[in-house]
Design a protein that fits this description.
This protein has 14 helices and 19 strands. It is an alpha/beta fold.
Amino acid sequence: MSVDREFAYHADERLPRYTSYPTAPHFSALISSRKYRVWLSALPATMQSSIYVHIPFCRSMCWYCGCHTTITQKDEPIAAYLAALHREIAVVADLPNAAIGVGHVHFGGGTPTIISPEAFDDLMRLLRARFRIATDAEIAVEIDPRTLRPAMAATLAYAGVTRASFGVQTFDPVVQQAINRVQSFAQTATAVEALRGRGVRGINFDLIYGLPRQTVRSCIETVEQCLDLKPDRLSVFGYAHVPAFKKHQRKIADADLPDAQARLDQAEAIAERLVGAGYVRIGFDHYALPADPLQSAQARGTLRRNFQGYTSDPCQTLIGLGASAISRMPQGYVQNETVIARYIDQIAQYGLATAKGYMFVSDDLLRAEIIERLMCDLQVDFDRVAAAHPAAPDVLAQAMPQLEVLAAEGIIDLDGGTVRIPDEARLLVRTVASVFDAHLATSSRAYSRAV
């Protein structure tokens, strides 16, 4: 079902994507490298963690990009960065009393495959040497199909990569020109086959709607081409136009961007075609084949949401490595320096490059679980969640006036202590989640549109 047109005005609200709670704009410099050392040292030996590795380099800038990345045509800056990254890995791995167990590794960017095959192999060997990476761990890498070479495809397979996430965004040449990312279907198909042919079976595609000069028709045509390659998963994101925060986005003319109703139409057209092709909707912006682990996790109620989006990864602790990377410890969040030069300097001096973070207080963990369950399950049972946080205040009572308004609009169903989001309002889950965000009113960040 499509989103009811009477809900459309909510689609223009500016809200967080809720890949964490509290969200990154509320991090502060009160969390230091010293504090992070204490938190790392306190990790229980039995706790399994996930690892995120950030490679902040690309060969060219995509004008829609919201990532922390730097453009370079030279390899020397990359080599200097990798040396610092190796140092950070060694320091982080040595702090706990026992080797950290790892069940999931994700390489993001930027373009992780911008490094040489030899450098990637060295990096993976170091991670395996310093952490207890499970034999069945998922190892995922984000890939730009335009730059993937056969030697790197072979190295990724040899290094144990199990999942590749391909940036597609759109196959419409008009839109590609408008976002400075010209990428043919043939390039994408060749890259997919290069990995599948070497045993990397998990294939994800990232699509974006709401791009300049994009239409419903071009969205559907892109989906049709994607279906020819049958990825296991697709992430379908709404373009976040924040030129005040990402200055390169100023190259995109506001007049070329679709309005809120057009964005809504594009998102629902993509959803309708993917569901019609047999994909299952996961949360509000992912799609997966029925046999995919994301679908199994959603069916069991164990789906999670983190900085990479929806995941079946059950780990509660995330260790972020590299410039701008964010870690989630049992005590709170830690973010590294985002400027590469400062990151390298801090690692050289202190072994860690903590810039800011957040320590959980009061009812943060209760609110975080409520928001995550809404984002993952499109419903939440307050009695069940509150039972795990007996000392927290009655968040449901505080939120009830806003919930009653949303219920009157048909965006949610209220049934005692349970909130459900009907399918026709699925795309407005961020609107519902924001009701439980105690920090939102104090944020000065220009967030993306809700749809």
